[in-house]
């Protein structure tokens, strides 16, 4: 849902292109009298352009869409990314620069020289098109749901975009709370929207990243007896054991199975018993949304 100002129909008026929460690409066309009403962008069969349906109806797709001349035939095509699947999908413009007519198929973007489709962990919040390395070829940079920002270098000399494998510009593991008080560690750890610009005018491109970060705030209350300290330690041990029994690598089905075992249930019951007794000593997990500036000294502007 990262809006882009671009003249998609070559009429001299900037338009707004955006993805939506429910997975579709919309536009707001500019006119001499201002912007017209927002409408879904349709393909040549008059069907709304969107990402494939979510396999889980409880999960929203949160699509992003940007206009880019992907196949270099002179007209703007649509590149979409989304929370579900973490793939990039292309809708080619089969019309002309002034009369965009989009294909009916989503083409998943593949990494150069392989059959693998681009797939970014839990999802892509914002694809953006920019020449990151200053070689005069536009590249793709994506902000991801897992809190990372990745660069796909466009390897093509001429013609259609060809993406090298993703290189991390910022990595941040989801659900890893940053410690408050250590400002060097405070940064986004989920839902990254990225905007690339030379923020400090030093001819190196920088990243403006908006996203969510979470952090632990220590409790002001301290345990006053060995017994209380023992309980805090025991609970920490229990949490370690519980996460060991349910590693991230498990599928949803395996996860449910692991949680249903007698061993897991027993540990969990003990943790539930202990928690109310020590809750007041536990640090609290907080989160918030901000915009961060990541200065670069290596990404050259192509000007
Ligand atoms: Ca326009
Ligand atoms: Ca094109
Ligand atoms: Ca480039
Ligand atoms: Ca800069």
Shape: elongated
On the 0 to 100 scale, the average pLDDT is 88
The value of Rg in angstroms is 23 Å
Small molecules (ligands, ions, cofactors) in the structure: calcium ion
| Tally of separate helices | 3
What structural class do the secondary elements suggest? alpha+beta
The poorly predicted ranges are: none
Number of strands: 18
**Beta-strand fraction estimate:** 25-35%
Multimeric state: single chain
Biggest β-sheet, characterized?
A: 4 strands, antiparallel
Cα-to-Cα separation, first versus last residue:
29 Å
- In what order do the strands lie side by side in the largest sheet? 1-2-3-6
In short:
This protein is an alpha+beta fold.
Structure description:
The protein has helices spanning 226-245, 252-260, 262-278, and strands spanning 4-6, 15-19, 25-28, 30-31, 34-35, 39-40, 63-68, 77-82, 88-91, 107-108, 124-130, 139-144, 149-152, 167-170, 178-179, 190-197, 206-217, 284-294. The chain has 303 residues and is an alpha+beta fold. The strands form five sheets. It has a four-stranded antiparallel sheet with strand order 1-2-3-6, with no helix packed on it. A four-stranded antiparallel sheet has the order 7-8-9-10, with no helix packed on it. Helix 1 runs antiparallel to helix 3. The two termini are 29 Å apart. The model has no long low-confidence stretch (mean pLDDT 88). Bound molecules: calcium ion (4 copies). The site of one calcium ion has 8 residues, from loops.
């Amino acid at each position: 849902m990262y809006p882009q100002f671009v003249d998609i129909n070559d009429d001299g008026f900037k338009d707004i292109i955006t993805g939506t929460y429910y997975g579709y690409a919309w536009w707001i066309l500019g006119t001499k009298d201002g912007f017209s009403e927002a409408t879904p962008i349709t393909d040549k069969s008059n069907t709304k352009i969107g990402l494939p349906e979510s396999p889980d109806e409880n999960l929203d797709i949160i699509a992003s869409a940007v206009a880019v001349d992907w196949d270099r035939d002179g007209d703007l095509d649509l590149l979409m990314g989304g929370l579900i699947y973490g793939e990039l999908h292309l809708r080619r413009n089969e019309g002309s620069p002034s009369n965009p007519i989009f294909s009916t198929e989503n083409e998943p973007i593949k990494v150069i020289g392989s059959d693998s489709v681009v797939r970014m962990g839990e999802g892509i919040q914002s694809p953006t098109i920019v020449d990151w390395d200053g070689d005069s070829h536009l590249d793709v940079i994506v902000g991801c749901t897992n809190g990372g920002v990745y660069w796909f270098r466009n390897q093509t000399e001429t013609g259609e975009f060809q993406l090298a494998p993703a290189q991390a510009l910022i990595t941040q593991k989801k659900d890893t709370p940053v410690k408050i008080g250590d400002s060097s560690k405070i940064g986004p750890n989920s839902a990254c929207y990225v905007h690339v610009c030379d923020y400090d005018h030093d001819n190196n491109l920088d990243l403006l990243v908006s996203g969510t970060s979470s952090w632990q705030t220590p409790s002001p209350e301290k345990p006053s007896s060995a017994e209380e300290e023992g309980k805090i330690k025991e609970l920490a041990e229990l949490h370690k054991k519980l996460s060991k029994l349910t590693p991230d690598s498990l599928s949803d089905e395996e996860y449910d199975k692991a949680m249903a075992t007698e061993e897991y249930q027993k540990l969990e019951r003990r943790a539930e018993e202990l928690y109310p007794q020590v809750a007041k000593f536990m640090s609290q997990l907080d989160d918030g949304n901000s915009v961060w500036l990541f200065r670069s000294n290596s990404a050259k502007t192509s000007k």
